[in-house]
Amino acid sequence: MALKNPKKKAERSNLSAGLLMFRIKGGEVQVFLVHPGGPFWLKKDEGAWSIPKGEVQENEPLLETAIREFEEEIGVSVKGEFLELGSIKQRGGKTVHAWAFEGDYNESQPIKSNMFTMEFPPGSGKMREFPEIDKACFFDLEEAKRKINAAQVEFIERLQNAISTKKS
After folding, report:
1. Contact 156, 144 (CB under 8 A)
2. Which of 3, 10, 4, 21 is nearest to 99 (CA)?
3. Are 17 and 66 in contact (CB under 8 A)?
4. Whole-angstrom distance, CA of residue 112 vs CA of residue 71
5. I need a surface site. Which of 5, 72, 83, 87 has the fewest CB within 10 A?
6. Which CA distances in Å does 130 have to 8, 63, 72?
7. 44-51: average pLDDT
């Protein structure tokens, strides 16, 4: 059976939205990033972290997606003013839309991430469950730029510009 509109499905899977939470601690801006769970990402660090984000559902407003995904991946409700950071295109072709907001998170609190199932080890026939996110924490801006997916560095720079413009 053929898909009714295979092109539409591909477009949806290439569109994500997320939130970049930040805080000011000791006069320094810090951003909150998440590390993907699962065996592929286990030993990857620099360039592997991301803003909490996820796939946009059909007819779902982008900001609503960003808020929903943050709450699903971290287990924390978010409120406040959201600063639009625009969009970027990642190397794999995915377009990510992001908003920033000021907030805080107790990093000693366990993450309540969604789980996903995959065959592991590959070819074993054994299905295992893994968290979508296995770690989350705040980083200063320079460290965050090293940790985050290279395409998403632009979100941090846009946040920096917005904060420095606000101070002026």
Report:
1. yes
2. 21
3. yes
4. 9
5. 5
6. 28, 26, 15
7. 96
As to burial, measured by CB atoms within 10 angstroms (0-12 exposed, 13-18 middle, 19+ buried), residue 97 is buried
Element (H, E) at 141: helix 141-147
Q: Which amino acid is at 55?
A: E
Type of residue numbered 34: V
Amino acid in the structure at residue 14: N
Window from 2-11, 45-54, 136-145 with minimum mean pLDDT: 2-11
Nearest-CA neighbor of 87 among 22, 150, 155? 155
Half-sphere exposure of 50 (CA within 13 A, CB side): 25
Peptide bond into 121 cis (omega under 30): yes
Residue 22 or 167, more confident: 22
Q: What pLDDT does residue 64 have? A: 97
Q: Please, what is the average pLDDT of the chain?
A: 90
- The pLDDT assigned to 168 comes to 57
CA–CA gap between residue 123 and residue 102 (Å, rounded)? 44
